[in-house]
Amino acid sequence: MNTDFVLEIAAGLCLVLGALMSLAAAIGLLRFPDLLSRMHAATKPQVFGLLLLLIGLALQLRSWAAVPVLIIAWLFQLLTVPVSAHMVGRAGYRTKHLHRETLSVDDLDAVVQKAAAEEAERRKADAAEEAALAADPELAAELDAAGKADEKPAGKLKGALRIKEPKEAAAKASAKRRRES
């Protein structure tokens, strides 16, 4: 047997197997039932299929000059596919585009529930501040005057309404705005 013939067979085998792996990824992407299964089908076989295609291409070209370019192409794919899969999975989780009954363990549920509770508490505090501002015209006038002095609207003074004395509230809010600027 000739070395060229063996390399041709190996290159052809790698190209066919790589194409089949990429085809399996595409079919899985279309046929799997939920987001997480599709995400798995789009990442794992696709990266391995690309590796086989690049190996087959390197064997076909038989040039050492092409090997660094092929390695860089595969490394970029290897680095970007997990990040994109993570972002798709995260977006799917946040928008509730997954079937919870297919999950065996949901590690993010406690974290998401805690973040939702903190967000609700923050919104409640903001609503209370707005109500206090509407109920106390003197405080609103002082905060508005402090806002005009710094050329910032008074509506952005977070936390100033929790302080009882209006002058102290205006001074602290003005200092906070200067730090944020």
UniProtKB/TrEMBL annotation:
Biased segments, Basic and acidic residues type: 145-154
Transmembrane segments: 6-30, 42-59, 65-88
MF terms in GO: sodium:proton antiporter activity
Keyword flag Transmembrane: yes
InterPro entries: PhaG_MnhG_YufB
Keyword terms of this UniProt record: Membrane, Transmembrane, Transmembrane helix
A Pfam family annotated for this UniProt entry: PhaG_MnhG_YufB
Start and end residues of each stretch annotated as Disordered: 144-181
Family: Belongs to the CPA3 antiporters (TC 2.A.63) subunit G family.
NCBIfam families: CPA3_mnhG_phaG (TIGR01300), PRK12674.1-2 (NF009314)
Identification of the protein by name: Multicomponent Na+:H+ antiporter subunit G
